């Protein structure tokens, strides 16, 4: 039995991702999310009583690296900032995120 | 007017510390944010969150986290994994922080303090964020971002709410930092932000079992003294609100060392909703028992163990021992001195007392023979002839019949008075212990 996703929930999710959406988009997405959940709900029909939970599907474990600095892959400051919309004295610049009094 | 005595403190702490690995947690960038020559010079596609960048976990960081867990008596999860903590904030460019959610590396440990044990709930490994600078550029309010720190391995140590006083919080923090430094896994420099403190504070009625229904977090405290002051301040503030029939607001606060007050930080408009899920880029980690054994074998002798060894081997009182093991260097230096003292028949406890109370001037690294020579010069006693000692004792007894009667009636404390009098009578540096023995024999 699929749950309906409300426009309030869509708004909440959009806020968390900092994506502005219109009222119309909220309604469209609510319907789309509900549909997605209904599809996923098909999984509930499967009997998983004897199946171990998994955190990963590629069967890999213990992929670790030695603690070594890899200068080859490191960017210069210019490279690091190359795609930034705005920079200032070597920093990335974004609109002020908190208003300090 | 009610005061804090009507309430008891319920407090837990969360402490973050940056590990001092050579490279970052999930990429090969240099891990040295405090000494970087300029902002954004230690970055790569992984720690800048570029599409296609694939994180790979730093083995040393994993080992060190487990070592800390072992040092704190934690259970180690043989199966563990990394999760994505999703939030939108420019201190991490990916839109999430790689952390550990439901299966941290270490759980259920303990740190002993003089005011009781503080249980450790969990220790997990995550990545640090970039550094934000809130400023104004060309008249516009902006935030500047430096990603040199982004992706630096960060451990978070979370306690149970076992802390009962502000001073215990300070002691817990100090002990934890001491252990971390003994393990040599982090510099834990508070001023630079290499170690950051957070206290969760609430008050419960002193006489009831009920637990508080609220909790106030004071975040980003950068000194142990400040954590003590912040908790003291909060206790007063909560007691006032509670005694007026109210409940302190559940919120995050900051500490202003200049005003000596906490202040409210942005009230959360929405409940935290991090939508954790296992990071598909990072396969889980399964530890072998042998690996755990190896890490255990690598643990150095820890501060508490040193104090009790000094106590058993050299009869050094723990109150001195605890002040002489602040660093591993100091402890091994003191070890050499105690060994040398034992060979010369000098009481290690008297020597420890002299060093702690600065009766003799020493510093870490001084040669043991020089320290002993200084000690001799300051505390050398002359051998007093037994008959001279007896004569002095008789004289003191004759002059103080009341004190003799008191002693015989069971007042042992007067022995100290006698020792002083006898040494004065002799007029030279007599050994107080020898005098004491002679006095006890004479008073039988
Ligand atoms: Zn990197």
Describe this protein's structure.
The complex is a heterodimer of chains A (101) and B (444). Chain A has helices at 7-16, 23-40, 77-81, and strands spanning 64-65, 87-88, 91-95. By secondary structure, chain A is an alpha+beta fold. A two-stranded antiparallel ribbon of chain A has the order 2-3. In chain A, a hairpin with a 2-residue loop joins strand 2 and strand 3 (91-95). Chain B has helices at residues 59-71, 166-183, 224-243, 289-298, 303-314, 318-321, 328-343, 348-356, 368-379, 386-399, 401-408, 414-426, 432-442; strands spanning 7-18, 57-58, 75-76, 79-80, 83-86, 96-99, 106-113, 116-127, 131-137, 140-146, 153-159, 195-205, 216-221, 252-256, 261-264, 277-278, 285-286. Chain B has a nine-stranded mixed β-sheet with strand order 3-7-8-11-1-12-13-14-15. A three-stranded antiparallel β-sheet of chain B has the order 6-5-16, with no helix packed on it. A two-stranded antiparallel ribbon of chain B has the order 4-17. In chain B, strand 13, helix 3 (224-243) and strand 14 (252-256) form a beta-alpha-beta unit. The relative contact order of chain B is 0.11. The chains are: A alpha+beta (101), B alpha+beta (444). Chains A and B meet through helix 1, strand 1, helix 3 and strand 3 of A and strand 2, helix 1, strand 9, strand 10 and strand 17 of B. The complex binds zinc ion. Zinc ion binds next to loops of chain B.
